[in-house]
Amino acid sequence: MDSDNRRARALTDNITQPAGRHVVPNSGCTVQASIAMKDVEKVSPTRWNSSSAAIQKIKITKLSHMRYCHPSSGMEALVSFMLDFGMEVVKRTDNAIWFGGYGIDQYVYYAEIGNEKMFLGGSWEVESWEDLKRASSLGGSPIVELTDAPGGGYMTSIQDPEGFPVNFIYDVTPRLHPTKQQAEPLQVNDEFLKPRKGAFQRFQPGPAAVHKLGHFGLTIHDFELQFDWYTRHFNLVPSDILYAQDDSGVKSDVAAFLHIDRGKDYVDHHSFFFSVAKTQHVHHSSFEVHDYDSQNMGHYWLKQKGYRRVWGLGRHKLGSQIFDYWWDPNGFMVEHYIDGDLVNEDTPVGRQPAGDESLAVWSEPVPATFLD
Question: Which CATH superfamily is domain 58-174+205-371 in?
Fold first, then answer.
């Protein structure tokens, strides 16, 4: 036995690290924003407040739902996809379908039935009737009653400076309670803490049930034009800004992640983003699901059904969400996400270089289709 041990030690002693190579294992932890961003360039609030002091901003309270038009010939394929994506049909008429999650929102996705696919805009809930009227005046658009929509309410639809539709709603009656009970967090045994004793993990395969709409994004042409309009007229402020730097060292902002400013109240890191690109279009809309297991089971459910994957799973750097992107049957991109950051007026705003490294902490390589 002693000779065996000596031979084993001799073999181990002969194993050396390659010259100049030092491997550090991965790690992760939860840290306060001020620590996480200590080496990041900070942005002063004058970047978005200087020109709007005299303007009474339209107060947004939340992102409500997305609106799209889909061709009538593809509606059944869309319904099948949405069910497999984790939504439910709340209401259907000859002209539209309302899809819901299990949260208090009556619906999170409105699909108009038309002749061709079209982006009809994200929909923001505003604080008061006066805010809705100000939005209506800003766009010179009428206020219409949503007589067919679950929860009712009123809406006005305007256009931003690049022609994207933007919707504002008010007086929608929410559900009294979520349709799904809050699940107990899974007990997880790591290498040191093992709270789960004599209990097993068991799961039911199926779609990842959607809770709520989290955010959406656009690809645009003129960053300053769009940034000024959205931050001047609404209580939307940046959480992070990305820039590109030319050969002479000049930095130009090219992307922004915006949250709803509710003062000291914590809100999602971003409800809206836009980035400069060659073509203008909606980039994706993103929906929150329960946890990592439900997200993964949803991923494999969609994969087994033969739907087209875009990118994921992975974890974003900005916002920290674990993401999973898919194409719907008509070519619109949608996302499942979990574990997003929360920010408020005290959270520092960062400015850093754009690039693949700003998109993900871990993932497969970013596909070209995601960046188009």
Answer: 2,3-Dihydroxybiphenyl 1,2-Dioxygenase, domain 1 (3.10.180.10)
